[in-house]
Specification:
Elements (H helix, E strand, L loop, with lengths): L9 E5 L3 H13 L3 E5 L2 H10 L4 E5 L7 H9 L6 E6 L4 H9 L4 E4 L4 H10 L6 E3 L4
Parallel strand pairs: 1-2, 1-3, 3-4, 4-5, 5-6
Length: 135
């Protein structure tokens, strides 16, 4: 994701589900990625203001600002960052709106490492990839 083979991507997960944050942190750190999980969009905004992330994974249902509002807020300031939208409330309209907010893909929960890896390997700047209905 970043240029240079020795440097792994920096990933930010914005999800209020603690076990999801913990399990994805364990996996991505074991794979050599820099990973941070935060529980709210507001904390996500603080983080993207502090440092660059190559990938941002944002859940829809969050306390306070929701994931779509979060994506809308960072759309202009972080155009090169790959953004993935996740939700347990999948639907074409919601995923279409996420795409308009700058998401390069979407995943229906439950989140799995396999779904995230598949989406990251499939999506490019021109593609919009959705993984839904595959629980």
């Amino acid at each position: 994701m970043r240029s240079g083979k020795s440097e792994k991507a920096r990933i930010l997960l914005v999800d209020d589900d603690g076990p999801i944050r913990s399990s994805l942190r364990i996996f991505f750190e074991a794979e050599g990625y820099e990973f941070l999980g935060v529980e709210s969009a507001e904390k996500g905004l603080e983080e993207v203001g502090r440092q660059h992330y190559d990938v941002i994974i944002a859940d829809y249902r969050l306390p306070g600002m929701d994931g779509l509002q979060f994506l809308r807020t960072i759309r202009e300031t972080h155009p090169q960052t790959k953004k993935i939208f996740t939700t347990a409330h999948a639907g074409r309209e919601l995923f279409s709106e996420a795409r308009q907010m700058g998401a390069s893909g979407c995943i229906e929960k439950p989140l799995t490492v396999e779904k995230i890896e598949q989406l990251l390997s499939q999506s490019t700047e021109k593609d919009y990839v959705c993984e839904w209905g595959q629980s």
